[in-house]
Design goal:
Largest sheet: none
Shape: globular
Structural class: mainly alpha
Oligomer: single chain
Radius of gyration: 18 Å
Helix content: over 70%
Number of domains: 2
Strand content: under 5%
Length: 198
């Protein structure tokens, strides 16, 4: 699991006043998720037309909404399978839209490697989750990926290329980590079956 995700309970407590206000206003976690995606689409548009710093600011706000939707769902007891999948899909679409806009606006095409690694991680998690196994074992996850995306867009060439290569590689390695961990868990379960049946 990402080291940053270990602070989720503390984050939930810290923003409880905000989630309480949103809950009273009948704002749903899915609405927050979709709002983050819309902001990222707008951010990609700004980046594509050369306004990279405005795009980064909007993308960062969208990422903050992504951190808020889960807290709101846990605070209201609204955690659902649909919400989990919607969140994951919107996360990837947000990254794709913003990075594609940044590339159109002049950022290195190597930034798309981050999207490829992110998609690979998503597919690995979906596969493992459908097997009924834990899919949150990746050490390099969305918070770290977003940090490297923003850093890569702000630093000059060729450092940005290296940052994007590293982010893409770490995302791909995390996908392999999720798959290998699930394979070991499945193998252990099969090994224990004869003993359990006795």
């Amino acid at each position: 699991m990402s080291l940053i995700y270990r602070y989720k309970p503390g984050k939930d407590r810290a923003i409880l006043p905000l989630t309480s206000v949103l809950a009273k206003a009948q704002v749903t976690p899915n609405l927050v998720t979709v709002s983050g995606l819309i902001l990222s689409l707008i951010a990609g548009g700004f980046a594509a037309f050369g306004h990279l710093h405005i795009g980064i600011a909007l993308f960062f706000i969208g990422a903050c909404l992504d951190a808020l939707d889960g807290s709101l769902a846990r605070a209201t007891g609204g955690c659902t399978e649909f919400g989990r999948y919607l969140d994951s899909v919107c996360d990837r679409l947000s990254e794709l839209a913003f990075i594609a806009g940044a590339v159109v606006g002049g950022s290195p095409i190597s930034a798309l490697l981050v999207v490829a690694g992110s998609m690979a991680l998503l597919m690995a998690r979906v596969l493992v989750h459908r097997m009924g196994l834990r899919s949150d074992v990746a050490r390099f996850s969305r918070p770290e990926r977003l940090a490297l995306i923003i850093i890569g867009l702000l630093v000059p060439y060729p450092i940005n290329v290296v940052v994007f290569l590293v982010a893409g590689a770490l995302s791909s390695i995390s996908a392999l980590q999720v798959l290998s961990t699930s394979r070991r868990a499945a193998t252990d379960a099969r090994t224990l079956e004869p003993a359990i049946s006795q």
